[in-house]
Design a protein that fits this description.
Strand order of the largest sheet: 6-5-8-7
Helix content: 55-70%
CATH class of the largest domain: Mainly Alpha
CATH superfamily of the largest domain: Porin chaperone SurA, peptide-binding domain
CATH architecture of the largest domain: Orthogonal Bundle
Order of helices and strands: HEEHHEEHHHHHEHHEHEEHEH
Distance between the termini: 57 Å
CATH topology of the largest domain: Triger factor/SurA peptide-binding fold
Structural class: alpha+beta
Amino acid sequence: MDKRTKIAIFFITAIVLLIIVIAVTPEMVKYVDENRAVAIVNGEKITKKEFAINYRSQINYYGLDKAFLSQKVGDKTYEQQIKENVLDGLIVRQIELQQARKRNITLTSTEKKAIDQQIEQYKSDSQSGAEFKQYLQTIGATENEYKDQVIKSQIVSKLYDEVTKSQKASDAEIESYYNSHKSDFVEVKASHILFKVNDSKEEAAKKKKAEEVLQMIKSGQSFEKLAQKYSEDETTKQKSGDLGYFRKGQMVKEFEDAAFSLNIGEISSVVKTSYGFHIIKVTDRKQLSLNEVKDEIKSTIESQKKDEYYQSLVEKWKKEAKIKKFEDVLKSVSI
């Protein structure tokens, strides 16, 4: 091979390499940028990409836009506040994942398979599949990156279950809770006559009709027969308006307040709720016994104890952790 040929080959090779470098440089720059650390927790970094996925997920969930994010509350914009909250959450999660690793807490193959199946189920349906694809594009995540976030969330959940499993409610605690919350364990049985309001234009007419029926009841006509004739609650009208037994927290507030203020046999005035106008009659009231609600109380106490104990552990882990944040990288993330 003569000298000219060697020089020609050298230049052709150099040009080809230059073209390759030019072609891959944007991807390389993007890769390097996305892998910059927004925080380092005990020597492990939280990348800009992972932060961006979680930040955009929050923005998407609450339907926030740039105009809202630019508004100020105090000395910070909503954007700054949300970014700080998301980063703090990711720092805690990183600490939790480290604690899970120390305890050899991972997902089983069955649990991972369940995640895969759930994702495939999203994708197989034409509507949810399109929505899932759009969601990934909105938050800037690949399917594997989305799956990684789900896996991390489930590992943290398993950590919670493991470290809090010793938090139990004693019989004495259950009894004490029952005695101090007796009013929460009262049930009333009530019936109602409903006049539905589907449009604000018909509100006045429906209220007038409800008041007319209330006067019929006051004049001695049967509540039960009037419920069968006038109630617009198709589920209960054939049962004379009977709703059965319910406790506080199971009905809309206005209805609940009225029902629990009545004695057995009493009838309310016209009560307005988001459903329309009601006439309510209480037909029974009873105090649930400790045995009837023991399991419920046990669950409530243990859930509270677990949450408090776990939060104390998280605070301890945070104090012991070495954390460094990179505000310049945080600022560079946008929606």
